[in-house]
Design brief:
The chain is mostly beta strands and 124 residues long. The chain is 3% helix and 48% strand. The mean pLDDT is 94.
Length: 124
Amino acid sequence: VQLQASGGGLVQAGGSLRLSCAASGRTFSTYAMAWFRQAPGKEREFVAAFSRSGSSTYYADSAKGRFTISRDNAKNTVYLQMNSLKPEDTAVYYCAAGPVITSRVRNPSEYRYWGQGTQVTVSS
């Protein structure tokens, strides 16, 4: 399984970005798909996820109301639409996949596969 993240960049506060994560293999039919982020000097933190079935979505409190996770099964791609961006959203964003049970989707150690990360920088 390979994950390829893209779409990061530099944006002003209040702006928007859409991240993409293209997955190879049968990930969509088998695995939970998630986005995490890691800022310098901080631990990797959960942002948003789809359950293994794809029928449920989960968000960190910091992402609720501003970020939306979506998917295109035909393209094996997961997206993260980020609106109303804030400087504190600055981080490297990673997509992840794995056979993660619903109660553990927020835990990065549960994920088996990771993309290479894409940098998001929000200027004030």
